Amino acid sequence: GAGVSQSPSNKVTEKGKDVELRCDPISGHTALYWYRQSLGQGLEFLIYFQGNSAPDKSGLPSDRFSAERTGGSVSTLTIQRTQQEDSAVYLCASSGGLAGELFFGEGSRLTVL
Amino acid sequence: GIQVEQSPPDLILQEGANSTLRCNFSDSVNNLQWFHQNPWGQLINLFYIPSGTKQNGRLSATTVATERYSLLYISSSQTTDSGVYFCAVDNQGGKLIFGQGTELSVKP
């Protein structure tokens, strides 16, 4: 696509529910990144993919968080048993390769009640 | 891991003024980018500049990799320049780490 597309743009869920956030990168971009931004804060690195592989998962906050990428394209970030502290904007970015320019989507705003 | 520090944390300007934002980093880098996050939350890529100098209109950036800092210059600021400016660096070929940002407010 022309830009990085994320869905849903807004998600309100109840504590304890599972959520899935989707990212569709720019066509042809091999690298894909997930970040989290809490209100008024900077960007916290979660995970990146090169192709379908995730060389560094150290940024995932807990084992409730997981991410996958299939076909070298779309990625899904899954949060199980959501907690109120998971409330944040989840941002996805893609790049033509590692150490390349990042282009961000508009984010998915997650609110856990 | 690599550390990124941005200064100043906040900046208020009158429209038409110039400003310089700074980004210090703790190790050599193979990727450095400047981003602008507008008041609606959208992150826009301003410069990809692991070294050297680039200019784009009223904005320019310089990275002195040997001294581990980068500067973003904004000239003749406009109200639409308001928002948060982030510097992000990577030295591992993948994990781009963001600074805490400089929040800029341009007053008419």
Determine Rg of chain B (CA atoms, Å).
Answer: 13 Å
Distance between the termini of chain A: 33 Å
What summary fits the major beta sheet of chain B? 6 strands, mixed
Largest interface, per-chain counts? Answer: A-B, 24 and 24 residues
Instruction: Give the assembly state of these chains.
Output: heterodimer
Give the SSE order of chain A as H and E letters: EEEEEEEEEEE
What percent of residues of chain A are in strands?
Answer: over 45%
Low-confidence stretches of chain B: none
Helix content of chain A: under 10%
Rg calc of chain A: 13 Å
Tally the beta strands of chain A. 11
Total beta strand runs of chain B: 11
Global morphology of chain B: globular
Shape of chain A: globular
Mean pLDDT across all amino acids of chain A:
93
Structural class of chain A: mainly beta
Topology:
The complex is a heterodimer of chains A (113) and B (108).
Chain A: E1 5-7, E2 10-13, E3 19-24, E4 31-37, E5 44-50, E6 53-56, E7 65-69, E8 75-79, E9 88-95, E10 103-104, E11 108-112
Parallel strand pairs in A: 2-11
Antiparallel strand pairs in A: 1-3, 3-8, 4-5, 4-9, 5-6, 7-8, 9-10, 9-11
Chain B: E1 4-7, E2 10-14, E3 19-25, E4 31-37, E5 43-48, E6 52-56, E7 59-64, E8 69-74, E9 83-90, E10 97-98, E11 102-107
Parallel strand pairs in B: 2-11
Antiparallel strand pairs in B: 1-3, 3-8, 4-5, 4-9, 6-7, 7-8, 9-10, 9-11
What do you see in this structure?
The complex is a heterodimer of chains A (113) and B (108). With 113 residues, chain A is mainly β. Chain A is 0% helix and 50% strand. In chain A, the strands form 2 sheets. In chain A, strands 2, 4, 5, 6, 9, 10 and 11 form a 7-stranded mixed sheet that branches. A 4-stranded antiparallel sheet of chain A has the order 1-3-8-7, with no helix packed on it. In chain A, strand 9 and strand 10 form a beta hairpin. Chain A is globular and about 35 Å long. The mean pLDDT of chain B is 94. In chain B, a hairpin with a 4-residue loop joins strand 7 and strand 8. Chain B has no helices and 11 strands. With 108 residues, chain B is an all-beta fold. In chain B, strands 2, 4, 5, 9, 10 and 11 form a 6-stranded mixed sheet that branches. A 5-stranded antiparallel sheet of chain B has the order 1-3-8-7-6, with no helix packed on it. The relative contact order of chain B is 0.35. The interface between A and B is medium-sized, with 24 and 24 residues.
